[in-house]
Amino acid sequence: MIQAQIAIVLGKLPKTIGACVFAILLTQVVGGCTRQPSAESTDSASGAPSSETNEGQSEETDESSQDDLMLVGDSNAASTPASPAINEPTGATDPQPNKDKSASIDVPQSVTSQLDGRRKQLAHDLKPAQLRTFLSEADIEMRMITRGESGIEDSATAFNELKRIATWKREASRRLIEHADATEKEKAIGRQGELQSLSHLASLGDLKAAESLQTLAESLQEDSDPDVRSDSQLVLIGFAIEDLRNGKEGAPSRVVSQIDRLLQSSSAPDAATLMVMGQAKDALLQFEHVEEAARVRAMILEEFVEPAEANAGESGAMEALVDMARQVAGPNFQVSEATSRVQQLMQTVINETNEGTDPSNSAVSTSDWKAAIEALADEQPDLLTTQFLAGASLEVETVGRADLSEVTYQVLDDKFAAMQDDRGSEARTALQARDNREKIIGKTFDPDLLSTDGDELSMEDYRGKVVLMPFWSAAFPDSLLVVDNLQAIARQYPENVAIVGMNLDVQSTDVPAFESRNKIPFPSFRSVTDPEASVANSVAYRFGVVSLLFVAVIDQDGKVAAIEFSGRDLTPVVENLLR
């Protein structure tokens, strides 16, 4: 609930800080100040944090407990004299007496945190390791609030608490940057923390923080630390996207150039980079900057997908990132001449089918179709093309153009099936399903399965009748759209035709309840799908099911006579068997 309330509040913020709202989302992805490997450890006896130095030596902190160092007061302390006044953080010192006071941080009044009944404050004279711990804890508490895990149920309280913690986070970051004992890496963590805290504050409606964030990001985009440099460039991409949305001149090219700059300076683009690139691509498309959007899409594929396709066998985490990248990139919105040609031919075939044109009189010849899909496969040999061709093969098979279907499967086999990546897997799956559909025709089908109610059910009981078997799933109700046609046929031939379904739901699905609610009048076998198994559903695999709708027609001898997945009227098929 609190997450939804915070989302509503953020949605009402001024348009000018939209880029910074995105920046705080980025911080969630990269883990705030914990993005870099943390060296802190906490002694279980004393609670005192320690930090590994560059030489690997452990540097012990003050013997005071971590709670005393980091947290001041309790749930009743908001009105006590110990609470800090505005503009006076607890223990705050000015390491630079001549520093411009206009840059002082406006610390809001404390708001009681319901995380554990205590308010996070900055204690006096914290060491670098303790400041790092403070930053990490601040990130954890902010994530708990935004996820609704803090115990705070009021959106206004949550909003104020987020702002208060972000303000302290900025102060801690500055102290770490300026601390005489901080290492270069710790100072870099401080710079990263200040970037993040400003993005937090800007996303919470602080326009001055938004201006400071942009200025800081510009000054740090060539920072010596790669994490600081990357975060700065991510923020600047966000601002460029906002300029694009506000119609500022030159914004589209700045979005692209800033992304290119990020990729050139980053050795290992991560999920945060991918998210920003996806946001940029979508924003460019939204405002019809198709050429720039296509360039960003190409960058996504070049950085995340193509290296993985060239090096099969990546780790599970990398595979997940590559899959995400494919989804973020999406289909090629710049329709190539080859893609357009295949789409035109496909539409012609569909129109001819709807008009009842005999395939022998078709305007689409086998040679024309083959030339078009081969050109597409050569021009764009990526996963999306493989999936497109697999779908096209099924579509022309559905409308009865076996000649076009055959050459499409042949191209999938020749161009993609041998590849040891997702393209090869997609092609092999389509080819295997086609082979299975061909092999099942003429085979007796009498599964050793119970009904959806757990009762005995046997195809032997239907010998002498034509059985119409819709494959269906409660998870995909549209799989039952064909049932009206099947029932019409069964009513026309009540003594000769029966309907027996094949349910494909996972084990946890309450199939009988679904059947009761939807008044399904025919019995069904229960073939449980297991998404974790090498073959998710053995019956579906045997029939080559790759989509629903799907109906198997079984003749009077119990043999599979036909397979239909177009949803067309099966009356002619049944009448042919009844002759």
From TrEMBL:
GO terms classed as biological process: cytochrome complex assembly
Keywords, in A-Z order: Cytochrome c-type biogenesis, Disulfide bond, Lipoprotein, Redox-active center
Nuclease as UniProt keyword: no
Location within or outside the cell: Cell envelope
Keyword ATP-binding set for record: no
Disordered: annotated span: 34-121
Chain intervals with Polar residues compositional bias: 35-56
SUPFAM superfamilies linked to this entry: Thioredoxin-like (SSF52833)
Compositional bias ranges of the Acidic residues kind: 57-66
InterPro entries: Thioredoxin-like_sf (IPR036249), Thioredoxin_domain (IPR013766), Thioredoxin_ResA/DsbE_sf (IPR050553)
Annotated Thioredoxin domain residues: 438-579
GO CC terms, sorted: cell envelope
Cited PANTHER family: THIOL:DISULFIDE INTERCHANGE PROTEIN DSBE
Protein name per the record: Lipoprotein/thioredoxin
Protein source organism: Rhodopirellula europaea 6C
